[in-house]
Design a protein that fits this description.
mainly alpha, Farnesyl Diphosphate Synthase, two-stranded antiparallel sheet
Length: 364
């Protein structure tokens, strides 16, 4: 059997196993929650909807980190870890959409929007938007709790003080810190030194997204399989720049992506006021008038299509898009160089290379 065919079979089996684990886990929790009240069913339905499908990037990084460190292909531990990562990702998405005031997720209504629509459909009292936000916050908290429950089910490899537990704990704390830095920059950025905007934006993507998208999942899989410090350092040298390239590509798609492909309205990141590396480059490199235009319009939920077109023009004409593409290329090269140096067998190395190529060049 070729490496490509073995990779396909293993990856397909693992993704199916994670999906099955998530279904079994949520079904068991559904019984518990329904015994409290049938009214809680929409919370459970929202979580189930979010963890169904998706790219499974984090779970797959964990799997190949496990396999690269000598873990068995059909081991229950890495499947459970993959499920825990998917639940954590779902919790982060729920809260992120509230913070960003995003009404869509994967081509459909975001969780807080679904609850607002439920409020309206049932003709309930008081403010539907406030109910939608409150219900979604609680759904995200419940999903976060489920992620912890799932990870604990791994057993002694994930026990308190173990390398895997330390990585899992650090990952969650860093995401919360990164999220705060993100919302802080939205409000404080216009008053801060523009010369440091790119550096601040890079720090935000590192802790809010890059580490938990690639670096920590890969290290988590390795740690669960007993990887030594040298291999874990090698994993980090590969996965961190990969995660940064992945998020930078996401930022480009948030402004220039096709809504049909991305599942989000065109220019949604601009309406949400995201001060990304792409925007930071534009503010730093554009003319004073163009920079002032971006500052005045960024974060306006009623931003018109004409305004979005103008901001896109500024980003292109100022060289900000090109500068971001150069960064993506540099991070990508660093990741692939580090991958070449990893002492891995052909199968996990090939799998990681394919994941990296997809992450850097994706269109959605």
């Amino acid at each position: 059997m070729s490496v490509t065919e073995q990779l396909r079979l293993e990856q397909t089996a693992f993704v199916a196993a994670v999906a099955g684990q998530l279904t079994d886990f949520l079904t068991s929790r559904q019984a518990v929650m329904s015994s409290i009240s049938q009214d809680i069913d929409p919370l459970m339905g929202s979580i189930s909807n979010l963890v169904t499908g998706g790219k499974r990037l984090r779970a797959l990084m964990c799997y190949w980190g496990w396999r690269g460190a000598g873990g068995e292909a059909d081991a229950a531990e890495v499947v459970t870890a993959g499920a825990a990562l998917e639940l954590f990702q779902a919790a982060a998405l729920i809260h992120d959409d509230i913070i960003d005031r995003s009404d869509t997720r994967r081509g459909g209504p975001s969780v807080h929007r679904r609850f607002s629509e439920l409020h309206e459909k049932q003709s309930w009292a008081l403010d539907r938007e406030r109910f939608g936000h409150a219900a979604a916050i609680l759904t995200g908290d419940l999903c976060l709790s489920f992620s912890e429950e799932s990870f604990t089910e791994i057993g002694h490899r994930a026990a308190a003080g173990s390398p895997a537990r330390l990585i899992f704990n650090l990952m969650r704390a860093e995401v919360m810190a990164g999220q705060y830095l993100d919302i802080l920059e939205e409000v404080a950025g216009p008053r801060r030194d523009r010369a440091g905007a790119v550096s601040r934006a890079q720090s935000i993507i590192r802790f809010k997204s890059a580490k938990y998208s690639t670096e920590h999942p890969l290290a988590l899989g390795g740690a669960l399989a007993g990887a030594g410090d040298e291999l874990l350092r090698g994993y980090s040298a590969f996965a961190l720049p990969l995660g940064e390239a992945f998020q930078l590509r996401d930022d480009v798609l948030g402004v220039f992506g096709d809504p049909v492909t991305t599942g989000k309205p065109a220019g949604d990141d601009l309406r949400e006021g995201k001060r990304t590396v792409l925007v930071a480059f534009a503010l730093d490199q554009a003319t004073a008038a163009d920079s002032e235009f971006i500052d005045a319009k960024l974060g306006d939920p009623e931003l018109s299509d004409a305004d979005i077109t103008e901001i896109r023009r500024i980003i292109v004409d100022s060289g900000a898009l090109q500068a971001t593409e150069v960064l993506i290329e540099e991070f990508g090269k660093a990741a692939f160089t580090a991958l070449d140096l990893l002492p891995l067998e052909e199968l996990p190395k090939t799998a990681l290379r394919k994941l990296a190529e997809a992450a850097v060049s994706r269109a959605a």
